[in-house]
Write a structure and sequence with these properties.
Number of domains of chain B: 1
Number of strands of chain A: 13
Largest sheet of chain B: 8 strands, antiparallel, barrel
Helix content of chain A: 10-25%
Number of strands of chain B: 11
Strand content of chain A: 35-45%
Largest sheet of chain A: 5 strands, antiparallel
Structural class of chain B: alpha+beta
Distance between the termini of chain B: 11 Å
CATH topology of chain A: Cyclophilin
CATH architecture of chain A: Beta Barrel
CATH class of chain B: Mainly Beta
Number of helices of chain B: 3
Helix content of chain B: 10-25%
Radius of gyration of chain A: 13 Å
CATH architecture of chain B: Beta Barrel
Number of domains of chain A: 1
Order of helices and strands of chain B: EEHEEHEEEEEEHE
Oligomer: heterodimer
Number of helices of chain A: 2
Strand content of chain B: 35-45%
CATH class of chain A: Mainly Beta
Structural class of chain A: alpha+beta
Radius of gyration of chain B: 14 Å
Chain lengths: 138, 152
């Protein structure tokens, strides 16, 4: 049975299938480090997306896999450079600052209904500020 | 040189209007004062936030400026912002004021930077500048606040 990623953003809980075939090392490391929790912020440069930055040792120094720079709504990526998991809820172009483009390893993709529920909560990050987030590999 | 006061969450700083760059839009802004609006953080532009309540600028005024893009009067083609810059992004009913508090480049979407009108700069020598920047950063971590502009 394939593994799934559960995301809980302040009580809104969704699951997405993990792309084990496309990003085996990243998914394995994430599973080993699971569960993770912290504070989620909205993206400042990349567009409609929110993140979880974690300094867990298992997730450091992972090679890029299934790499993307432009993300479609629902894509979940691990950005090795930032040690950051980011969830896109709209069209995203990963970057850190002007001229500093980022690339992420796509590890999962949310289904439409889950994406809609999570996007509604993600919007509140800009209105209300940071929120607790936890992720778990099932 | 005209000056305005900007208040965010109890901290007030003074800014200088750039009449020399955008005489028409600075005049409209001045006439619209006092002006207040909720602000939320930008998601493409870095350390910057914008007003939710559009600054009323008649379409006839936007229509006067066609280069470098419609609605931009500022000939400096400004897109990279310095801390304390107050810029006006054109757009008729969706026009907004944007204020930067760190590394920022005005972008309306993922495609890239957009030119804006540089209306004012907060005085770096203002004794409240550091505290003001901290309050600005809270728009990112704590969410929406209300910003107030008035004539100084």
């Amino acid at each position: 049975m394939s593994r799934k990623l559960q995301i809980d953003l302040e009580g809104v809980v969704v699951t997405a299938p993990l792309l084990e075939a496309q990003a085996p090392k990243t998914v394995e490391a994430l599973a080993a480090a699971s569960p993770l929790s912290g504070i989620s912020h909205h993206a400042r440069w990349s567009g409609p997306a929110f993140n979880l930055i974690t300094k867990v040792e298992r997730l450091q120094g992972l090679p890029p896999e299934n790499v993307r720079h432009l993300l479609a709504p629902g894509m979940i990526v691990w950005i090795p450079q930032n040690s950051e998991m980011l969830v896109a809820y709209g069209d995203v172009r990963l970057c850190n600052s002007p001229g500093q483009e980022l690339f992420g390893s796509v590890i999962g993709e949310l289904a439409e209904g889950d994406l809609d529920r999570l996007a509604a909560k993600a919007h509140t990050l800009r209105l209300e500020g940071e929120k607790p987030i936890s992720i778990r590999v099932l | 040189m005209r000056r305005i006061a900007i208040e965010l969450d109890g901290v007030t700083v003074e800014a200088v209007l750039h009449d020399e760059k955008c005489p028409t839009l600075c005049g409209l802004f001045w006439d619209a004062l006092p002006y207040e609006s909720p602000v939320i953080h930008e998601m493409f532009s870095g350390r910057a936030f914008s007003t939710l309540k559009p600054l009323p600028v008649p379409e006839s005024v936007w229509g006067r400026f066609l280069f470098p893009r419609p609605g931009v009067e500022d000939p400096s083609c400004k897109t990279n912002l310095n801390p304390g810059d107050v810029v006006l992004a054109p757009g008729g009913r969706t026009s907004k004021l944007c204020l930067s508090y760190g590394l920022a480049q005005f972008r309306e979407g993922p495609a890239g930077p957009s030119y804006v009108n540089h209306l004012a700069s907060v005085r770096k020598a203002d004794p409240n500048f550091g505290q003001f920047v901290e309050k600005c950063a809270e728009v990112y971590s704590k969410g929406r606040k209300t910003i107030r502009f008035r004539k100084a």
